Amino acid sequence: MDTLKTEENNTLEKITTTEPMNGEVKTPEAPNESNSAVVAAHYNALEEKGLTERNKSRIVYLRNFNNWIKSMLINEYMALIKESRAVGLPIRVLDMCCGKGGDLLKWRNADIGHLVCADIAGTSVDQCRSRYEDMRQRQRRDRHHHQGFTAEFIVADCTKVRLRERYKDVTLQLDLVSCQFSFHYCFESLPQAECMLRNAAECLRPGGYFIGTMPDANDIVARYKAANSKSFGNPVYKIELESEDQPFPLFGAKYGFSLVDVVNCPEFLVHLPTLERLARKHGLELVSKSKFKEYFEVHKEKGRGLLGKMQAFETYPSFEGNPLNGEEDEYTHAKEFIEKEKCERVGTLSKPEWEAASLYMVFAFRKMKAVTMDREGRPVYEQQSQDQPSEKKETSHKWQAEELLSREDASPKMLKGDSTT
C-alpha cells in the first residue's frame, strides 16, 4: 500500500513547470510560523565546545565517522572537478548551511580558491568567520604556508533567500556546492525546496557538482513501520513523527529528531523521486546516491588512513585505561567478528551509533548544459549521464519501506586492527 499521499493533480505539474521565485520566498503555511525560525534559534543557542569537551561526547565516534564521510565525498568530487579544469584555475565553492565552519579544514585541504559560507544562524556564521580568520592567522605564521582561499560570509535562510543577490560578485561561477546534513529542512514546502535548489544550481557551471548528506526518508519510514509507533530510536537518537496519518505528503512531512549533545530539531522527509524531478528542472541530474553504509563499503580501503587519522572508529576491545564509549552489550557484533576472524582488535562503532549513522545517505548532482530555451524562455538542459534515473512517471510515490525492511545488512561495519591503524 502506498505510504505517500498523491497530492492534488497539479502538484507535480508545478514542480516541473513553475518558474522559481525571485527574492525571498513566502511559505504557504502562514499564519503558522515557519520551521526556519525554530531551526535558527536552535543552532544559535548551541554552545561552542572545544576539542576536549567534544571528545567526551557519547557520540564522538559517530561525529568523527560522519566527518569521514563528508571528507571522502568532498575529496571524490573535488578530484573530478580538478580533472576537468585547467591547472591553475581557482576552484570556487558554496558551503550552503555551513554552520560553525566545521568543513573549513576540508576546503583548505582541497586547495580551493574561494569559498562562500551561508547559513540561517547568525551566531554560527560569526563562529565560522572567526574560525576562518584563526586559520588564516596560523597560515601566515607558517613560513611555508600556502596562500589559502578567500572567503565571504552570508547570514540567510537558504530555503527562502536568493543567495546570488548576496554574493560580492553576482557573476560568480561555482564549481562545487556542498550542503551537509541540512538539505532536508527545505522540504517544509515546495517554494522552499525550489529556492534551495535554485541556490544550488543557479551559479553552478555546467559540469559542476552539488553534493551533500541528508536523512534517508525511506529508511525512516521503514523504521517507523518496524517499530509500529510514531516514536522510535535508541540511547543515541530519537525520531518522533508529527502525524501517523497515511500516506505522507510530498512536502511538510514533519518529524522531531534528537541526537545526543547535538541536535533537537524538527525536520522533514525528502521524497527522492520528487527531489530528482525538481532538480532536473534546475538543470541538475542525479549522478550518485548511496546510504552511508554503502558509501563506507566502497571507500573504506581508499580512506582507511583517514579513518584512523580522524578516529572515526572506536577500538574494541579498548586498551587499558581507555574505557568503551558505550555499554559492553553494544559491541556484541565486534566480539563475534573477532572470534570469527581470530583477530586481536577491530575498529567499529557501537550499535546505537551505527543505527544513527545508517539513517543517512550521500547524494551528488551534476549541472547540465543548457542547449536551448523553451517557449517561456526557460533553459532546456542536455542530459549528460548514461545512468540517469528513469523518467517514468512517479504516480504511486512509494517510500519503498517494505524493500528496506527486508534487508538484513544492518550490523555495524568493522575494520581489522585498532582504530588508529
UniProtKB/TrEMBL annotation:
Q: Tell me yes or no: is Methyltransferase among this UniProt entry's keywords.
A: yes
The protein's Enzyme Commission number: 2.1.1.56
| Basic and acidic residues composition-biased segments | 389-411
Pfam families, alphabetized: mRNA_G-N7_MeTrfase (PF03291)
Q: Where in the cell is it found?
A: Nucleus
Originating organism: Graphocephala atropunctata
Q: What is this protein called?
A: mRNA cap guanine-N(7) methyltransferase
Q: Which family does it belong to?
A: Belongs to the class I-like SAM-binding methyltransferase superfamily. mRNA cap 0 methyltransferase family.
